[in-house]
Specification:
By secondary structure, the chain is α/β, with parallel strands linked by helices. The protein contains eleven helices and ten strands.
């Protein structure tokens, strides 16, 4: 018995097909079949019932499947431990990234990880800021990026950059934009953001002096969607200043000049009690990529 035979046994059991399992393991069908036969000879039991429709576990095969999987998991853990001893991580890390177009310097981060830990598989998953925080707290993510007006609760967080926000209006307001007051903005339709998005909290702060909120014509889940809907004339909205200035240059929107908000970009990771094997390596790589200071009013370059 060796690990290759166990891998083939588990793959055939999961797939119910010798050919599919062989393809998954990059083996020929005869080679995969020979490994199953060798394992059956070793155990002196039949593991599968072979039919024209596929291969099905026998009662003995069902009893041995969990043990085989546990053995493979243990072997993987031993390999990972050896890699860590040599200073190289292996396995899969998951990073939460934002759904909007804010550059997160991912190129620099991924290049550093690939150089130092070539066997570490990093998966990037897009989500809204509040969801990134929640999923990091639940250890679904090993770390992630989040925009927030204050330090997130229930996770560790470090400051990366301050992001300016501004109010944008459809082009039909171009002639009167300098005469509009906050009460006037309250009276026109708005393109709002979902509650999990930091822009939604910024709009609440904007209208706090009025103790009211405007009527929403649409709800968007990213700054790109807000920009598109405002440009389409469906209402006012809040955008990152760099995004708003680009939209102005393209003749899409106008900026209301009497309010400047801000949110903070954080790198968040699970609390110390829930730290995984990749937590510190990811944090170091992110902070190294963000070491250069970022101007609040300038685009965040990758």
């Amino acid at each position: 018995m060796d690990l290759r035979q166990l891998r083939t046994f588990v793959a055939v059991a999961r797939e119910g097909s010798l050919s599919r399992a062989a393809g998954q393991l990059f083996l020929s069908i005869p080679a995969a079949s020979a490994q199953i036969r060798a394992l059956e000879d070793e155990f002196e039991v039949r593991l599968f019932t072979r039919t024209s429709k596929g291969m099905y576990l026998t009662s003995a095969g069902r009893r041995l499947l969990d043990e085989a999987q546990a053995t493979l998991d243990a072997a993987k853990h031993v390999t990972q431990t050896a890699e860590e001893i040599r200073g190289q991580l292996c396995g899969q890390a998951c990073i939460g990234i934002l759904t909007d177009s804010l550059s997160l310097r991912l190129g620099s981060i991924m290049a550093a990880l690939a150089e130092r830990h070539p066997k570490l598989d990093v998966r990037l998953q897009r989500d809204l800021s509040a969801r990134v925080i929640h999923r990091t707290r639940a250890t679904e993510f090993d770390g992630g990026f989040a925009l927030s007006g204050s330090a997130p609760d229930g996770v560790e967080a470090t400051f990366l950059a301050c992001i300016d926000l501004t109010v944008v209006l459809p082009l039909r307001f171009e002639q009167e934009v300098h005469r509009l007051q906050l009460a006037d903005l309250l009276a026109i339709p708005w393109v709002g953001s979902v509650s999990e998005c930091a822009l939604g909290s910024a709009m609440i702060d904007l209208f706090r002096p009025m103790d009211a909120l405007p009527k929403m014509s649409r709800i968007a889940d990213s700054d790109g969607a807000v920009r598109s809907l405002v440009a389409g004339g469906l209402g006012a909205g809040i955008l990152r200043r760099t995004e708003a200035e680009e939209a102005v240059e393209n003749g899409e929107v106008v900026i209301w000049p009497y309010w400047h908000g801000a949110v903070t970009l954080y790198w968040v990771w699970p609390s110390p009690a829930a730290n995984g094997p990749f937590t510190e390596v990811l944090r170091e790589s992110v902070l190294r990529a963000w070491r250069e200071p970022v101007s609040i009013a300038s685009p965040i370059a990758t």
